[in-house]
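Researcher: Next entry in the queue.
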Amino acid sequence: MGNEKRKRSLDELSRALRTFLSASDAFDEALGGVLGLNATDVRCVDLLEQYGTMTAGALAAVAGLSTGAVTFLLDRLERAGFVRRVRDDQDRRRVLVELAPFARSQISDLHAGLHEALKGSAQHFSMSDLESIITFLREGAKLYEAQVALLCSQIPAGTTSRTSTARAAIKAAVKAQAKAEALEKLEQTAGKLQAKASELQRRAGRL
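Model: Structure for this entry, 207 residues:
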């Protein structure tokens, strides 16, 4: 009896989760309608809000898009005032992409009603309940990632999967960006050392 009741509860949980995710997708679609953005635009804006400033290449990897498509997308978002391209303080040759203050403010305002409603709903749960919900959602995200990897492994050879690129990049984007930055700094250091060595050689030749 107890096992049957638990099975029914788990089935209901699965259905409730799918309904929740569908509602979330509908919210994002409506958000895009208000902002005048398509689904891909909304996704990229959301990724920039989640992960912060990054290169166009990193955004392309996270979003599962080609660099050409992201360049076109960023040009459009920049004209609309949602993103801006800025120079890296550490390397002025390097261009980064970030959300414009206008976009952050507008997105925050449009989410305000949802956030307040969720806070109100959360009042019905104890701290223990909330901690359990948080744990479940975090574990659920990991399970989704694992299933995405499993599904992508079944894609026929030679087929390009934007989903697999995107999901894998979500985990590695920040790390990859940091690695790229470290490599660039090493290259800069190597260049300076080479220039220094050349200068020392020239001085030695004058002696």
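Model: Residues 2-206 form a domain with the Arc Repressor Mutant, subunit A fold (CATH 1.10.10.10).
Researcher: Noted, moving on.
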